[in-house]
Amino acid sequence: MPLAHVSGGLPADGRQTAPPRVLTIAGSDSGGGAGIQADLKTMLALGAHGMSVLTAVTAQNSLGVQGAWEVPVEAVRAQYRSVVDDIGVQAVKTGMLSSPELVRAVAELLSDVAAPVVVDPVSVSKHGDKLLADDALDAVRTTLLPVATVATPNLDEVAQLTGIAVTDEAGMRRAAALLLTYGPRWVVVKGGHLPGEAVDLLTDGEEEHWLRAPRHDNRHTHGTGCTLASAIAVGLAQGRPVPHAVSQAKDYATAAIAAGFALGGGTGPVDHGWRIRARN
User: What are the φ and ψ backbone dihedral angles of 215, each rounded to 5 degrees?
Assistant: First the structure.
């Protein structure tokens, strides 16, 4: 759909047009820093209308995840159909899908969606809490990644999915090549856990884009992966090519990391509203 039809504003007939519609399929973070909450904040900040399919409820704060409860598969399917069949979507982002049953159900739902899909294969929280069952990894490889327009694993997730322990940029390239064999059109291997610059590799096997940003001295980075994936989804919903959408998302997420703030006694969130605060 052309950008002019989804960006809001008043067309010639005087009717208000809707902003781009982006759906997140992910778990709830009760602390508000990651998950569904981070996704919806990012979508709003970047001019999209965010919608959600809840896959899990977590008891979570700045110190870690104290509990997690999966939403029944039939409830996930019902949420998805309610949104897609009535409102429609222009991009979808997936996050926490904790079991093989959920992974397969979501992959089946997305197999015929006429919109780009961003898959963030969430497996471990910022605090090291496990969010993906071991037996769900194969379902991610064989059913979810094949429906992805863009997959956005961090290095821990890369190691779980491919067996490659990445320690440098050459390893990022090897891992991306293997991930592409699972079926996504593009892969972003996030190298934020490596020393030095915060570098990510975006590739479709032919084009290669190295996205570099300064590393900010700020430990409050909870929600970084959710934020980046959601920002990519917004860019795709707005009609941007994948490299452009990923580059803009990287800029937004980098500034959100720089503005991250302390909450509670542990790791605080990135600031999804940094643009609003910068204007005030």
Answer: -90, 120
- The whole-angstrom separation of Cα 74 and Cα 68 is 18
Q: Which positions are annotated as active-site residues?
A: 190, 221, 223-226
Separation CA 98–CA 79 (nearest Å) = 17
Long-range residue pairs from 105-109, CB within 8 A, at least 24 positions apart, any chain: 105/73, 105/76, 105/77, 106/25, 106/55, 106/76, 106/80, 106/144, 107/139, 107/143, 107/144, 107/146, 107/147, 108/143, 109/77, 109/80
- Tens of pLDDT, residues 214-259: 888 899 999 999 999 999 999 999 999 999 999 999 999 999 999 9
What is the rounded (10 degree) CA torsion for 68, 73, 152, 59?
-10
- Of 217, 218, 209, the closest CA to residue 191 belongs to 209
* 3-class secondary-structure state, position 209: strand
